[in-house]
Write a structure and sequence with these properties.
The structure is a single chain. The protein has 18 helices and six strands. By secondary structure, the protein is mostly helical. The strands form two sheets. Strands 1-2-3 form a three-stranded antiparallel beta sheet. Strand 4 and strand 5 form a beta hairpin. It starts with a strand and ends in a 27-residue tail after the last helix. The mean pLDDT is 95. The structure holds s-citryldethia Coenzyme A. The site of s-citryldethia Coenzyme A has 22 residues, from helix 17.
């Protein structure tokens, strides 16, 4: 295969295909002409070997545990930036200067309020409703208050849609939580930062003044940054896929929330805690029995928070979370027996050939739930926190997809293995 061409030998005339060169990572064989020239399709369930687009947003090197947002290392961004700063970077491709960050922050702050008619929206849900169901429904509901988002085309409308979603999602999340515990809604207050406002709306009550612990604010900023984007993951691919039909940003993001909710994706952070709690509470569920179950081909149990489609080494986000976990517990003056269980489980799995041979390491979800718990969030809110973090990434990909001249409506092909054509029998002959 020379630098820019690949040859495919199917027995007849060899087929030449272009090779697309990357800035970083693997080159791509351009198969857009494969059906017309070789009369074949590719077969790649889950698209583990298929690039859906050329993107400039995020780069992941799974073998070297590298994650870059617009070329910046995730470790540096988590240490030195705020979540809104990183959201701006993902959306617009560069870090804001001080004036831009101040204007962006003020813009987001001033749009955190929901239309008052949205209050009745929450009344329609039972208290036991999972907050991810409320979040994805509310995301579509918000757009109905603003005609401009029905089919945004002008950059100013797209920017306004991005700002509205980023500003209002924490309010929706907090109100979904307050509804579930029967407490009054807390309105956003412009005097607080983005993360402080969210913590207030989640945990303040009319009974006393609420001030967020600076250590909690810092930790949640880091966690939201770590969740902000991850190239073509399942939920982002869903957002891009729905958006490829020219559906609006809000409904594309709402679809992505549905994909994120699955336990194999963002829902894993909730499943990890449930797995660790079972080990803690159930004497028959030990570290070793849990590892053995995960290895058993006849048991569909998976070691939640372990393994990854791209990482064949430790997820750099899990490394950041594991390293600052002890700081969070010290700052919160608390401990959690589940942290010790998680560390023992990681140690047992990483010593086992099954996990070593398959390059299965902890991913972002393995430790994130333990920190979310330490910050005071209930388990059912963990995937919602993932969604708030991932929102700028989803929007950045929707924007990139919408302006990419190579974008086509997502419509994969198949290999048909069903019945060949056959005559229709009369009902008396069936
Ligand atoms: C996220 O894509 C992203 O970027 C996602 C994400 C993001 O930021 O958007 O990083 C966030 O979703 C992280 C992943 C959270 N999910 C989990 O923790 C659930 C547990 N993990 C797995 O279900 C699995 O590892 C996936 C879903 C994450 C990846 O699945 P793949 O790439 O399809 O891998 P696979 O199922 O083909 O597994 C390969 C082998 C299989 O064994 P064999 O058939 O070769 O014998 O590894 C085994 C699997 O059985 N395996 C596991 C395992 N993960 C893979 N066995 C036990 N426990 C596990 N967790």
């Amino acid at each position: 295969m020379n630098e820019h061409k690949a040859q495919l030998d199917l027995g007849d005339e060899p087929v030449e295909l272009d090779v697309l060169e990357p800035t970083l990572g693997l080159p791509g064989i351009d198969t857009r002409t494969l059906r017309s020239t070789a009369h074949h399709v590719t077969f790649d369930p889950g698209f583990g070997n298929t690039a859906a687009a050329r993107s400039t947003i995020t780069y992941v090197d799974g073998a070297k545990s590298i994650l870059l947002y617009r070329g910046y290392r995730i470790e540096d961004l988590a240490r030195d930036c705020t979540f809104l700063e990183v959201a701006y970077l993902l959306l617009y491709g560069r870090l804001p200067n001080e004036a831009e960050l101040s204007a962006w922050t003020a813009d987001i702050t001033n749009h955190a309020l929901l239309n008052e008619e949205m209050r009745s929206f929450f009344d329609a849900f039972p208290r036991r409703a999972h907050p991810m169901a409320v979040l994805s429904s509310a995301t579509n509901a918000i757009s109905t208050f603003y005609d401009v988002y029905r089919r945004p085309t002008r950059p100013s409308e797209i920017d306004a849609g991005a700002r509205t979603l980023i500003a209002k999602l924490p309010t929706v999340a907090a109100w979904a939580y307050k509804k579930s515990i029967g407490e009054p809604y807390v309105y956003p207050d412009n005097q607080y930062s983005y993360v402080e406002n969210f913590l207030r709306m989640m945990f303040a009550t009319p009974l006393e003044e609420f001030r967020a612990d600076p250590a909690v604010v810092k930790a949640l900023n880091v966690l939201l940054i770590l969740h902000a984007d991850h190239e073509m993951n399942c939920s982002t691919s869903t957002v891009r896929g729905v958006g490829s039909s020219r559906a609006n940003m809000f409904t594309s993001v709402a679809a992505g929330m549905g994909a994120l909710w699955g336990p194999l994706h963002g829902g894993a952070n909730q499943s990890v805690i449930e797995m660790l709690q079972t080990i803690h509470d159930d004497p028959s569920a030990t570290i070793q029995s849990t590892v053995d179950r995960a290895k058993d081909p006849n048991d569909d149990f998976r070691l939640m928070g372990f393994g990854h489609r791209v990482y064949t080494n430790l997820d750099p986000r899990a490394k950041v979370i594991r390293e600052f976990a002890s700081d969070v517990f010290a700052a919160m003056n608390t401990t959690d027996p589940l942290l010790e269980i998680a560390q023992e489980l990681e140690q047992a799995a990483r010593a086992d050939d099954y996990f070593i041979e398959r390059n299965l390491y902890p991913n972002i979800d393995f430790y994130s739930g333990i920190i979310f718990r330490a910050l005071g969030f209930p388990t059912r809110m963990f995937t919602v926190l993932f969604a708030i973090g991932r929102l700028p990434g989803w929007i950045a990909h929707w924007m990139e997809m919408n302006t990419d001249p190579e974008t086509r409506i997502m419509r994969p092909r198949q290999i048909y293995v069903g019945e060949a054509e056959r005559p229709l029998p009369r009902i008396e002959d069936r």
